[in-house]
Specification:
The structure holds two protein chains of two kinds.
Chain A: H1 7-24, H2 30-55, E1 59-60, E2 66-67, H3 73-77, H4 81-114, H5 117-128, H6 135-146, H7 151-158, H8 172-197, H9 200-208, H10 213-224, H11 226-242, H12 244-251, H13 258-267, H14 272-295
Antiparallel strand pairs in A: 1-2
Chain B: E1 8-19, E2 22-33, E3 37-41, H1 48-56, E4 63-68, E5 71-72, E6 83-86, H2 98-108, H3 113-126, H4 142-154, E7 160-164, H5 172-189, E8 192-197, H6 200-206, E9 209-214, E10 217-222, H7 224-229, H8 234-239, E11 244-254, E12 257-262, E13 265-270, E14 279-284, E15 289-292, E16 299-311, E17 314-320, E18 326-332, E19 343-348, E20 353-357, H9 359-368
Parallel strand pairs in B: 3-8, 3-9, 6-7, 7-8
Antiparallel strand pairs in B: 1-2, 1-4, 4-5, 9-10, 11-12, 11-14, 12-13, 13-16, 14-20, 15-19, 16-17, 16-19, 17-18
Helix pairs in contact in B: 2-3, 2-4, 3-4
Classes of the chains: A mainly alpha, B alpha+beta.
The structure holds adenosine-5'-triphosphate and magnesium ion.
Chain lengths: 304, 377
């Protein structure tokens, strides 16, 4: 990601990186291995987080900057209907994106997981392919497709399906299309790996005991791939709240999501304390989601 | 106690199965009777699992027919066939407890809750797993999983139960115990069992009949004693129990008595249906093989005692023939032994030998040796 990364994303990345390093540590003296890691975590994860936490309790200076004065004003401000609405819309869009990704992604992942080995790797690399190009550029691509005199409208008009060009760009719908498009692989990959892992003899056993394929899917396949469903949903839902560049580009000014709000506080309004309070809220929300996920038996290893 | 009836429960008629160009089951004909415990025995890769899967409906036959209770089930899915399978790896549903696993088939058939509870309860006591209803499969030992898998299949009251090496993952002691239990269960319920194993001892102790398979071909089918004492082919003689197999040619035929000539000797054996100069195999069980310091009438075969191996209550003596072939002879411990290095006369009990044609083998060899026709342009 070339744009500013929301803090919670880098937090997650570091957590898994440190776990991997832990695995290596058996062969190397403990302090040599753990020392740099702890230092790294302190500088790049703990320090910014503590900084954000601290300034979230401070006041904005008259010309930007931060004035030290302990108060909860920033958190109370969030109760403003304006901001609550932004939170609400963000969560609705994130939920809708997640559901769309799941509904489209499950059959997709199923087909890949059940394909022959050779086709499997082709399909998987097709899923991964977009990762190798810049996501900002790919989002610009959607503008060309969706704008008033863009590809879709030209097509619709030339086939006389519509008389006047449709307003597609700069709507919540466009934002969702962009989100679904960008986050689709994050749904498919964990689903794929959980379907792939499913022992086929369990389905045969279900068939053998009288379950038709559709029943076997509901009673065996779906329950056993729930970890993949959870992992995929979390991996789509959380970034959707933070990917402000998509709602910037495809939503125009019409769509302000939590990510945009935070970005605006830091860069436009220069109200760092309020931006920090919003960030902390988002982090707490994420942690709660992870707790819930773990509570239902999810493993953090599924989230990569 | 149920008895094996004359009614044919499962029939395979001229069944061929190809995987790609690979023919893994070759013209299989098999009739399994109601209430019968039939074992399919053979080395790894001989097509046992494939055959079982064709009966269950997981694999289609390439040609031929699978007939269950007189009905060709060729285009019936597994859930439409009145057979159930116990899988080698148990295949218990990991997200369901023991009760729900066993109840699975009944809920699919929309049986009433009350009846399900009662039938699952009966099954649990049948396999001695009362009180385990709430356990998850991951909390069970291998033997317990096995019992649950059997209960889960039997609760549906199938006409035929298919078992694919159900005891393969258990340790020897538990295996022996489960063999006895399974056999009792089958007798008690009178259900037809088709049981796959590659353990010949297991098949000998449990089965009403054994079908010996090799390389996709049914070599012999019959009751255990017949399979053991009268193997129909060299493969069966070799695969079931231990055998000494000697190549010979028929020197002369006199009624039911043959004079066979080995590379290093000769012997009189009784067998019918052989002709002069035919190549044959003589199969002798180690417990029927004897040796003596003096020549025995009807035998002219000598060997050198090589070594004695103690195997619990029996002793295996290895006798080397002049052509280098080793013969195994088993004796009860305590029998006086001949010192290694001594030359002895080898003979065997008259009823302890089987004479086998070699021409089946020759036929196969011929097929494989058909020269490739090179096309020149
Ligand atoms: N799905 C498949 N695709 C291709 N070949 C297969 C398939 N299943 C089995 N085979 C081949 O068919 C042959 C018979 O296999 P099968 O599983 O029936 O053997 P088996 O007698 O059960 O052996 P084992 O004792 O090892 O279980 C083997 O050569 C195997 O490689
Ligand atoms: Mg097998």
């Amino acid at each position: 990601m070339n744009t500013v990364t929301p803090p919670l994303v880098s937090f997650r990345a570091e957590a898994t990186a440190s776990e991997k390093r832990m695995a290596l540590s058996r062969s190397i003296p403990l302090f040599l291995m753990v020392g740099p890691v702890i230092l790294w975590l302190l500088i790049f994860v703990a320090a910014p987080l503590v900084y954000i936490l601290v300034i979230s309790f401070m006041k904005k200076g008259t010309y930007g900057g931060v004035v030290a004065s302990l108060n909860f004003q920033n958190y109370l401000r969030i109760y403003d209907p304006l901001y609550l609405k932004i939170f609400f819309v963000s969560i609705v869009i994130a939920l809708a994106t997640t559901v769309l990704c799941l509904v489209l992604g499950y059959p997709f992942a199923y087909i890949i997981a059940r394909a022959r080995d050779r086709n499997k790797s082709i399909l998987l690399s097709l899923i991964m392919l977009p990762f190798w190009t810049n996501s900002l550029i790919r989002t610009y691509g959607w503008i060309i497709l969706l704008r008033t005199n863009g590809t879709f409208n030209t097509l619709l008009q030339s086939t006389h399906l519509v008389f006047r060009p449709l307003q597609m760009l700069y709507t919540n719908g466009a934002v969702m299309v962009g989100m679904v498009y960008t986050l689709f692989p994050f749904m498919v990959l964990p689903l794929y790996s959980s379907i792939e892992k499913l022992d086929r003899s369990l389905l045969e056993a279900a068939n053998d005991l009288g379950a038709k394929p559709r029943r076997a899917f509901w009673r065996v396949t779906l329950p056993l791939t729930v970890p993949g469903v959870f992992a995929g949903c979390i991996q789509v839902f959380i970034p959707t709240l933070g990917y402000f560049f998509i709602s910037d580009l495809l939503g125009g000014g019409n769509s302000v999501l939590v990510g945009n709000l935070i970005r605006n506080q830091f860069l436009a309004a220069r109200d760092w304390p309020f931006g920090a309070a919003l960030s902390i809220l988002l982090i707490v929300f994420t942690i709660v989601l992870m707790r819930v996920y773990k509570h239902f038996g999810g493993s953090l290893e599924n989230i990569t | 106690m149920a008895q094996v009836s004359d009614k044919v429960m499962v029939e395979l008629r001229n069944v061929d199965k190809f995987y790609g160009a690979n023919k893994v089951v070759k013209n299989l004909n098999l009739q399994i009777r109601e209430g019968e415990f039939l074992t399919m025995l053979g080395p790894s890769g001989c097509g046992k699992t494939t055959t079982l899967r064709m009966i269950a409906g997981f694999e289609a036959v390439t040609s031929g027919a699978v007939i269950i209770e007189g009905e060709n089930v060729g285009n019936k899915a597994p859930y439409q066939r009145n057979v159930n399978t116990v899988f080698q790896n148990y295949a218990l549903f990991p997200h369901m407890n023991v009760y729900d696993n066993i109840a699975f088939g009944l809920t699919e058939k929309k049986v009433k809750k009350e009846e399900i509870r009662q039938r699952v309860g009966e099954m649990l006591s049948l396999v001695q797993m009362d009180g385990y209803e709430k356990r998850m499969p991951s909390q069970l030992s291998g033997g317990q999983k096995q019992r649950v898998a059997i209960a889960r299949a039997l609760v549906n009251r199938p006409k035929v139960l298919l078992l694919d090496e159900p005891l393969g993952a258990l340790d020897l002691k538990l295996r022996k115990q489960m063999q006895v239990e399974l056999k009792h269960l089958q007798r008690q319920l009178g259900i037809t069992f088709v049981y796959v194993t590659h353990d010949q001892e297991e098949s000998l102790t449990m089965s009403d009949r054994i079908a010996v398979m090799n390389n996709g071909i049914l070599e012999q089918i019959g009751p255990p004693d017949k399979i053991y004492n009268q193997p129909a082919t060299k493969f069966v003689a070799d695969f079931i129990g231990e055998s000494n197999i000697l190549e010979a040619s028929v020197g002369s035929v006199d009624g039911d008595s043959l004079n066979v000539i080995f590379e290093t000797g000769s012997a009189e054996v009784s067998a019918a249906g052989f002709s002069q100069d035919e190549m044959v195999y003589i199969s002798v069980r180690p417990e029927k093989l004897k040796c003596s310091a003096a020549a025995v009438p009807g035998f002219n075969l000598r060997g050198t005692v090589k070594e004695h191996i103690y195997v619990g209550s029996i002793i295996k003596t290895i006798i080397e023939l002049p052509n280098g072939q080793d013969l195994k002879m088993s004796l009860l411990a305590g029998t006086p032994l001949i010192a290694p290095g001594e030359v002895v006369w080898v003979y065997w009990e008259k009823d302890g030998t089987v004479v086998l044609h070699t021409h089946e083998e020759t036929l196969y060899n011929l097929i494989e040796q058909v020269p490739k026709i090179e096309v020149s342009v």
